[in-house]
Specification:
alpha/beta, single chain, 162 residues
Length: 162
């Protein structure tokens, strides 16, 4: 049976400090709907091995999505390394092939970045706990425009940080 994927509540993280802050705010990272999301196109720039090491090094037990942008080769590399959650740009010419590859290994492939909470390099623990717990409004801007054709276009407005 195929189930629709629930709306993701994503937090963009790019360092062990940020991952650990999210895990602490979620009491060890057991929240149901929160996921970790790499910075935009991090799969292209930092590579899948960096993401795997970051997530493994922090002991994060949340789904952790690596944004591979339009790089089908990096997405295939991520799946080969055992990563099970990737994000691809809708502009990727090999998108259908990457999705088929992800499906064949039981991985999740999102098309386009989901909206996410952007953190300061060292986020405020109390504010982060309130936001992730649903007590305070997140005050975030979407990472991706609503038009899927420009999902990875640069954002012209600055994003508020915690």
């Amino acid at each position: 049976m195929i189930h629709a994927m629930p709306k993701l509540c994503a937090v963009t993280v790019g360092s062990a400090t940020q991952v650990n802050a999210v895990l602490a705010a979620l009491d060890g990272g057991t929240a149901r709907h929160w996921v970790l999301l790499s910075p935009p196109d991090a799969g292209c720039v930092m590579g899948p091995a960096w993401w795997r090491a970051l997530i493994a090094g922090t002991g994060a037990n949340l789904p952790a999505f690596l944004d591979c942008g339009p790089a089908a080769g990096r997405a295939a590399e991520a799946l080969r390394l055992g990563l099970r959650h990737i994000v691809m740009s809708p502009a990727c010419p090999q998108l259908a092939t990457v999705r088929l590859l992800a499906q064949s290994v039981g991985a999740t492939c999102l098309v386009g970045r989901p909206d996410s909470l952007m953190l300061d390099p060292v986020p405020s623990p109390d504010r982060l706990r309130d936001i992730l717990g649903g007590i305070a409004p997140p005050d975030i801007l979407p990472d991706a425009p609503s038009d899927p054709a420009s999902a990875n276009a640069p954002v012209a407005t600055p994003r508020p940080a915690l």
